[in-house]
């Protein structure tokens, strides 16, 4: 079976189509590249393009193509061809050479396809309810007792849950209500963090039910809540800029720290109601400080605001109504809570 090549078509279709800002090749781009296990679409694009996230602009992909890309696979070779005077890329499979062109091939994705961005970084956050409405966890079943009167629970321990009756789910996540997430501009409560503690599996249904804790990331205590485990969300999305102007802020960083770096997860104060969607790429900006340059003459300002500085990019991978989660893809300095995110 031929492997899907739509991702390469869209990823590497370098043409003379005009855009608001010219899309340029890397100064030291390779002439060819063989896809290997562990690659990502973002990473491969970055070997050829200075702005790797901009490849969907080249062929003006529609929304359906952006949300449902086809994949490329380890062993595929991408060759840069400059013979026509403008960059073209060819996909080489053994002795077969396929010229990349803006057309759609309908083929199902196969196991082993490379993802858009590193899955190890976002996998734990794809299916878990990281944001909850006020009081939502209060409706969930909770731990009422422990084996042998343990105070702290972890992987391998058993516990008793208020009530999970026959017919309920077998696999559950364990959570604890976290802090309120407040919009720094409007003071609106956007939601509440759900602190993920681990996973559990039902040993015996009933009131109480018995669970076995199969995984723990933090200490688990009496009173912690259970949420039914859902199937993991897909990661089949394409990096692209929002079609509208987005101006948001970082309201939280994973782990409760004030400063993170590349590969970290951050929470944004914009969500689906603001037009954000999975796959959106936003630029990171640091607010310029107000400084007092000193009075040199009657026209000298007392206070001067330094310009806001762009210093990185984030990739939105999960969207809620009022909030989104994004992965820091590029950063020239530490990412801080309350920094801006904007349409790049």
Automatic annotation (TrEMBL):
List keywords of the entry alphabetically.
Answer: Signal
The signal peptide annotation in the UniProt record is 1-20
Coiled-coil residues: none
Q: Which Gene3D superfamilies match?
A: LysM domain (3.10.350.10)
Provide the LysM domain boundaries: 31-80
Entry superkingdom: Bacteria
Query: What InterPro entries does UniProt report for this protein, alphabetically?
Result: Bact_Kbp, LysM, LysM_dom_sf
PANTHER family from the UniProt entry: PHAGE-LIKE ELEMENT PBSX PROTEIN XKDP, POTASSIUM BINDING PROTEIN KBP
What's this protein's name? Peptidoglycan-binding lysin domain-containing protein
Q: Which organism is it from?
A: Sulfuricella denitrificans (strain DSM 22764 / NBRC 105220 / skB26)
């Amino acid at each position: 079976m031929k492997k899907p090549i739509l991702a390469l078509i869209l990823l590497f279709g370098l043409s003379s189509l005009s855009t608001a800002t010219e899309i340029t090749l890397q100064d030291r781009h390779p002439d060819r590249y063989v896809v290997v296990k562990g690659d990502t679409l973002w990473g491969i694009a970055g070997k050829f393009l200075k702005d790797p996230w901009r490849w969907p602009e080249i062929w003006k992909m529609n929304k359906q193509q952006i949300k449902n890309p086809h994949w490329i696979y380890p062993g595929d070779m991408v060759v840069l061809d400059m013979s026509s005077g403008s960059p073209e890329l060819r996909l080489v499979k053994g002795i077969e050479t396929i010229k990349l062109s803006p057309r759609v091939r309908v083929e199902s994705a196969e196991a082993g396809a490379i993802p858009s961005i590193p899955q190890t970084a976002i996998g734990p956050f794809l299916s878990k309810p990281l944001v909850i409405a006020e009081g939502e966890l209060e409706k969930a079943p909770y731990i009422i007792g422990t084996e042998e009167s343990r105070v702290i629970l972890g992987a391998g321990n058993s516990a008793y849950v208020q009530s999970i009756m026959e017919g309920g789910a077998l696999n559950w996540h364990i959570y604890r209500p976290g802090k309120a997430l407040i919009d720094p501009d409007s003071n609106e409560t956007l939601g509440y963090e759900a602190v993920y503690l681990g996973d559990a599996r039902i040993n015996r249904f009933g009131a109480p039910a018995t669970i076995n804790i199969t995984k723990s990331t933090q200490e688990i205590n009496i009173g912690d809540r259970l949420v039914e485990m859902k199937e993991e969300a897909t990661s089949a999305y394409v990096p692209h800029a929002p079609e509208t102007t987005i101006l948001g802020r970082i309201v939280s960083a994973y782990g409760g720290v004030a400063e993170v770096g590349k590969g970290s997860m951050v929470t944004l104060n914009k969500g689906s109601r603001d037009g954000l969607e999975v796959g959106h790429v936003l630029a990171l900006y640091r607010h310029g400080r107000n400084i007092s340059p000193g009075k040199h003459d009657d026209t000298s300002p007392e206070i001067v605001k330094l310009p806001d500085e762009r210093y990185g990019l984030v990739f939105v991978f999960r969207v809620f109504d009022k909030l989104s989660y994004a992965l820091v893809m590029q950063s020239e300095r530490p990412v801080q809570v309350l920094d801006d995110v904007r349409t790049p």
